[in-house]
Amino acid sequence: MYSKEIVKAICANHVYEYCIVSKDFEVLKYSEKASKYCDKVILMSDQINLFDLVPELVGMEDELSLIMVGDKEELIVPMVFKEPNYYVNITVHSNRTMDPLIVLFENVTDNTIAQYNLRQANNNNLLLLDEIAEKNKQLEMFNKEMQKLVDEEVAKNIETQHMMELQTRHAQMGEMIAMITHQWKQPLSVIQTLGTLLKIKFESGKLTQNIFKKKMNNLLQQTRHLSQTVNDFQQFFTPSKKKVDFDMNETITSVLNLVEMEYALENVHLSLVEVTPVSVYGYANEYNQVILSLLNNAKDALVDSGQAHKHIEIKIDMHDKRSLVSISDNAGGIPLEMIDNVFTQYVTSKKNGSGLGLYIAKTVIENNMQGKIWVKNTEEGACFSILL
């Protein structure tokens, strides 16, 4: 009733179990282990109907009939779960010799479980990727918010630093005005004396042409000195718009001319030593302010030290084809616990100091003029050096 060759081929393959079905859908024969996928009670019956044995085929009678007459090659019902733990592919073929059907049960449990695990792992990966994407999105938002806060704080700090630098500059201007006052006292006194002398000579009739000419020349010389002092003051605090070549000796001498009268009142002696004439390229006025800041620090340290002989030496030299200016004093030096931090913002040894003078000096020299500034203690005091 059926092809022995087909049955032999099926039996030789351990993956398959089978049953042979007549054209009336009665089960004629089944393999020994078909009970793994079919109801054992039904298999014990004398007459076994295909649809009782394989209920998954219920409703497919027409398609099965087409297979019987050869109008359809096969029918596949994939991955059917069978108790207790099997997954099978049910495939129906026709035996065209005697018109019965051959129903094959292919055990695909391992492949099905592997595919399920693979899909489950893939789903887990997708969920993980979604979670990572969400976390990245949250992290990006957090970073943007933090960057915004950082930018705001940086802007606040820049504004605060700008205000502190402005206050420092105002303090320097106050010191400079005091210096100008002292610079003006002597010329004004001379002018007053010359004016009084000319008045007396004129009223007594003793004013000769030679006396008038000589005294007027003296008077004009004093007024020119006053005018030059004002000009020096104006230029000193006007920020340089561009870098220029300037003579180091002339620049430092102009600063000394502004402070010498004030320092003389404090018994501070200034000396300028030019070992080598030096011309440098940079911002002249900003450099002047650095020199003034270093000189004022040395002067204040000398006044506080109580030294009988107060001395500041400015030395101009060359080092490896670069300008080297050293400002040293005999005030005893900087405390060792502070010397490594004197250029740090807000660090100061003065009672009422802002801690910005040396910080600004370092910013001007190293950031704006690409130079280097440092300090060391000598046997007598402190020595600040600037390399450009």
Short description:
The protein is an alpha+beta fold. Helices cover 52% and strands 20% of the residues.
Q: Averaging pLDDT over every residue, what do you get?
A: 80
CATH homologous group name of the domain at 240-387:
Histidine kinase-like ATPase, C-terminal domain
How much helicity do the residues have?
40-55%
In CATH, the architecture of the domain at 240-387 is 2-Layer Sandwich
What's the helix count? 9
Largest sheet, order of strands side by side? 2-1-5-4-3
Which series of helices and strands comes N to C? HEEHHHEEEHHEHEEHEEHEE
- Strand content is 15-25%
How far is the first residue's CA from the last residue's CA?
111 Å
List segments where confidence is low: pLDDT < 50 over at least 5 consecutive residues: none
Walk me through the structure:
The chain has 388 residues and is of the alpha+beta class. Among the domains are: 4-107, PAS domain (Beta-Lactamase, 2-Layer Sandwich); 240-387, Heat Shock Protein 90, CATH 3.30.565.10. The protein contains 9 helices and 12 strands. It has helices at 4-12, 40-43, 50-53, 61-68, 109-204, 209-236, 248-265, 284-305, 357-368, and strands spanning 16-21, 27-30, 75-82, 86-94, 101-107, 244-247, 268-274, 279-282, 310-319, 322-329, 372-377, 382-387. A 5-stranded antiparallel sheet has the order 2-1-5-4-3. It is rod-shaped, with a radius of gyration of 53 Å. The mean pLDDT is 80.
Name some characteristics of this structure:
388 residues, alpha+beta, Heat Shock Protein 90, five-stranded mixed sheet, 12 strands
